[in-house]
User: What shape does this take?
Amino acid sequence: MGIWRSIRRRVFPLLSPKLNIAADEGEGPVIIFLHGIASSAATFAGVIPQLTDRYRCISLDLLGFGGSPSPPESNFTIEDHVAAINSTIHSLKLDAPFILVGHSLGSLLAARFAAMYPSRVSRLVMVSPPIYVPPEQIGDPLVRARVGAYLRAYEFLRTNKEFTMATVDRLRRLFQLDDILDVSEGNWRAFVLSLQNCIESQTTVSDIASVRVPIDVVYGSLDQFIAPGTMRIIEQMRHVTMHRVEANDHLVRRRLAKRLVEVVATGRKGVEKEA
Assistant: This one.
């Protein structure tokens, strides 16, 4: 069955399930938004209304999350996710390359999509990307220890279901994140496998290096899921511009949303920090 799924993805990629199109608003050049793990298209609720006067904004729920299907045969690998994204975008029959914006897990999927389909994407914007490389490939012992700690924490979350669900539920209620943060029985399998197969095991650095369009990386100075050492790897690439937003964590809060809108709408380069 695993071999057949691999062959089907390569030969019949458009047979992959279609994702839920949570929003399709505005007119003009197209922007496609991909949210992060344990979330939904609601991630961009504070961003899209600021862009619809100039752009057609399309927001998708990722495979297994929000209103999208959760196929029982899927292993929620990056290939599975990207195949579903490609199938959905193909169904939209877009005439011109689009701007692709991804948050968290969505940014990793966006980088793979842009690397695989270079003619489809005009610009790539990665928001709060949890980029890691295998600890054994990291020379700096401090960075290696930090990345190892992240990976152990993710393993703990996906192997301790009751703890993870209870913690997420408390965070949802405490910070009023009902529409943004969701780990439940309905998406637990998608959460666990996406975490294991797309975030813990990833080749995002090489995907970014393969992309041939401009890449903007927008992230918060307080982002608890970013390993500074691995960010230094990508900021040295000539086609990548970093945009650091002070006093913002991993979520697309007001400050980060403002900077994201500026980056998308103006393509502004070389902006390092927001006061």
Remarks:
- Residues 97 and 120 are 5 Å apart (CA to CA).
- DSSP finds nine helices and eight strands in the chain.
